[in-house]
Amino acid sequence: MSRSDRAPRQRSRQVALQALFACDFANQQQAGGEIGIEELFERVAQNFDLPAGARDFALKLVCGTTSELSNIDDLLAANATNWKISRMAVVDRNVLRLGIYELTQTDTPVSVILDEAIQLARRFGGESSPGFVNGVLDAVAKQVGKRLEPDAEASRESGRGVG
After folding, report:
1. Which domain holds residue 29?
2. Contact 140, 68 (CB under 8 A)
3. What percent of the chain has pLDDT over 70?
4. CATH assignment of the domain containing 98
5. CA distances from 119 to 47, 92, 147 (A)
6. Which pLDDT value is given to residue 162?
7. Chain segment 106-138, per-residue pLDDT in tens
8. Is residue 3 classed exposed, middle or buried when 0-12, 13-18 and 19+ CB atoms within 10 A define those classes?
9. Coil/strand/helix, residue 19
10. Phi and psi angles of residue 95, each rounded to the nearest 5 degrees, phi first
11. 143 within a domain of the structure (yes/no)
12. pLDDT at residue 132 in the model
C-alpha cells in the first residue's frame, strides 16, 4: 500500500481516536448516562473533511471498538503490566483500544497497526506514549497469535521503524 493510499486511513484513525477520546471524556464527566457513540462520532467528524470511505472506516473503528470494549479492556489489562486502565492517560488508553480492536477484529497487517498506533501516540500523546503503546500492542499481538511480517520485524529491530 503506497503512502498516498494510507493517508485517508491515517486520517480515519485520527478521527476515530478523537471520537473515542471524546466518548471516554464525556462518559467520565456525565453522571446520568452515556452519550450515544454515533451521535458523538458525528459531532467530532463534522470538524474534519473526510472522503466518504474514510469517514465510514472511522465510524467502523469507533463503533467496533466501543462494542468490543469489555474484551479489549481485558486484553489491555492483561498486557499493560503494572498499569490500571483507569490510571492510563486518556490518549494512550484510547490509542491502545483502537489498536487492539484492529489487531483482534480486522485483517490489517500487524506492522501497519503498530506503526499507525505509534504515530497517533507520537502526535497526540506524551513523550513516553509511543514506547508504551508499542510495548503493550506488541504484547497483545503475541498473545492473540499475530506476528509482525519478517520485513517489518527486521526494520523494527534495526531501529528504522515500521512502514
Report:
1. 3-157
2. no
3. 81
4. 1.10.940.10
5. 21, 12, 19
6. 42
7. 999 999 999 999 999 999 999 999 999 999 999
8. exposed
9. helix
10. -65, -45
11. yes
12. 97
